[in-house]
Input
Amino acid sequence: MPRALALPAFLALLLAPALAAAQAGAPRLTAPPIAFHQRILANGLRLITSVDKTTPNVTVQVWYGVGAKNDPAGRSGFAHLFEHLMFKATRDMPAENMDRLTEDVGGMNNAFTADDTTAYYEVIPANYLQRLLWAESERMTTLVVDEANFKSERAVVEEELRQRVLASPYGRFFNLDIPADSFAVHPYRRAPIGSIAELEAAGLDDVRAFHATFYRPDDAALIVIGNFDQGELDAWVDKYFGAVARPATAIPTVTAVEPPRTGARTFTEYGPNVPLPAVAITWLAPAARDADAPALEVLDALLTTGKSSRLYNHLIYKSQLAAEVFSSADLRAQPGLFYVGAVMAGGRTVEDGERALRAEVADLRDTPVSGGELDIAKNQLLAAAVRRRETVDGRANELGQALVEEGDPARANTDLAALGAVTAADVQRVARKYLADDTRVVIRYLAQTARPAGAAAVPAPPPPTPSVPYTGPVASLAPEGQRQAPPPVGAPVAAVFPVPAETTLANGLRVIVAKSSELPLLAAELTILGGAQTDPPHLAGDASLAADLVTEGTATRTAPQIARQTEALGATLSADSGWESSQVSLSVLTNEAAPALAIMADVAEHPAFAPAELERVRKESLDALTVALQKPGDIARFVTSPVVFAGTPFGHVEGGDPASLVRLRREDLTLLHDAWWRPDNAILVITGNLAPDQGFALAREAFGGWAKPAGPLPARPPVSPHAPPRAIAVDLPGTGQAAVVVAGSAISRADPRYYTAVVANAVLGGGYSARLNEEIRVKRGLSYGAGSRLEARSTTGVFTAQAQTKNESAPQVVALMRAQIAGLADAPAAAQELEARKSSLIGEFGRTLATADGLGGVLGELALHGVDPREIGLYTGKVEAVSAADAQAFAREALRPGAMSVVVVGDARAFAAPLAAALPGLQVIPIARLDLDSATLEAAAK
Output
């Protein structure tokens, strides 16, 4: 194995080959290889490392070669359930101790289960590395699961299934129907999340056997990237993992082989709460390591990456046939799938969609793509790779995926070269080879109400298989005095915060520039000080629709030209609107910054608001609302603002509602743009690998000609006192879960108690270890996750606590939320709890600043609220200065649950009666009568 270069040394050499490739006529973009070192221990554990001295953090990841395909018969979802259980106790660590070692010291942890792997990952301050290695070795060797923890975590997984699958209009389609109908025999046909019946059938014997079978050193890869000493790390790995025994038994493998398809097939599936029909077409595809994989990935990008892609351009933009399109080269360790699909636009049928999708695939088989189109697709893929490598955990994930799916972490680097080498002939060849018309499987997804009378019902699954008794060793939590102490913490590595610089152009545009990293990446965000707060009465969505349309055509560029020109540079360009601001955002590699910023300036300054584009985007927005109004969480979000801020400029749906979007005219958009989109009412933040003078020069070149209007800025809408609290239940029959929100008005960003409020919210609901999640998820298994958010705006703010739970548990979750909010005022937080939540805030803030987009977002938010951008360097000290008494006083003054509104959205048959008993005056609104444009939120009965 050649000696790995240190990352910063390598990056200094990066741009020269990119420019040389551009001069040679090849795609102009490249992505930095990940320099890494690897060795294999005697017990089979693979160690992959990469040193990066530019960060104060380190990521520790353990990738196990066991995924959903390895679920035992009759136990679908078991690998995923087991992933949750790995966060419980070990011999020397009590349950939830991984959070004490990560989140509570300023880090984070998580895990995921895929078909081929289960991966556990943490990002922590570098001085905690030794402790995390010890903890991961404990999880590998001495996992403890008792009956209480097992049942609690199984309940959490069931809530996750309800949230992701049963409460989502297309959750069944993507998670269950597409894999089940596409594979005939391979276990890839089972959803990683499983089924409630089979999860309920699992027992402790299953868990213990699964751990003994798969969680072993020769089935694992330990990946460490960040700020550490290689020799010291090697010694720690040998100490904590070297002695782990390699079992004598072989690792079970999946030997099933999916048979070739012998003809086309069509399946029709049905689901509740399906607002628009959907269709997918799938084909069998090779494994990820196959030589054809790069061409299939490029083909996938040609179809759906960006607005210049074929399916977007033809099915959404031109024909307006679809509300959403998707495709995937879903390549895995064993042969996988390639698929295309669409969620149809209102009034269109799945037959329309199938014809259009088949025509697009046929065109790829019959006609080679043009060189320009091919380069756009490849540049998009390569630029995305650069963005993924911006963080230590992003780089580790790239190496882990390459190892698990392709058998070699080095493929993370060589695959990029292979992508760059793909030709038009390669794309046509793989389209002909894999996407034959006579081997397609078509999956149609319709509303349950469309099922023909007398149609065969879905057959009941077979009864779950019984557990097999486990006879191996069982670990238990050692008595407190006999537990091994965690290793000591090392000397902290000081974080170096970016130093922003700023200037104001002659036209009044404020420009802020900060260097974020050595990667050849630039992010720019133009913030306009005017958002949904400026929407005229009964024209909710004016600012949002205007922002949506600025990228859809200018005086000199059509929408397709904007998409093609931007994406040819490997850039992403988008626009959106919030409550107090609208934004245009750009991400691009530094060597393409000037032309990309010129396009960005054009869309901000000269949007055409062409009538045809307005009608198209309006229809897309209405279709998106149709889907959102079948999602409990989205409905709860829509209802919250009109309830909390009734009668104020915040008292409507931020993005518009079905009635207001229909009312908006082109004149409304142009009036709003003329009033608020002007250089003396805007802030441009540029971050990335550049010095301040370079950023200022780019800003002057792109935006210096933006003329400042002669007239003054309009007065900002006043904010009236918030409305009295209300209790609202929206009845969404048949949905698989209820969304619960407790919300009220809060402080402005200028309030001197701002940092106290941030800390108080962190104690209550700002993370996995915060009180709401502890009470609702960890202790009771009632939700996949519960938390709270405090959004301090320029004029006022809003506090929101939220969770999703099974319908019948909604009243209990409301009571728990209100009790926890009240409890924060009753007694000060304990010193250890307060310190942990502060560390969590500081760590999360630092990780946000580690990316160009994240740093730009923070600087833009500070500038929007009139805060000196240099406050990023003061954040840690201001958080640390908050005392327990401060947080308690703030909770007593500002977080009073009796003054907050309650919103519950779900199948009201399961919760309306007990909720009404707890909340006198509860208003129950059937979804068919929900009127977001009305002060009462309810349309009159017909």
In short: The first strand starts at residue 37 and ends at 40.
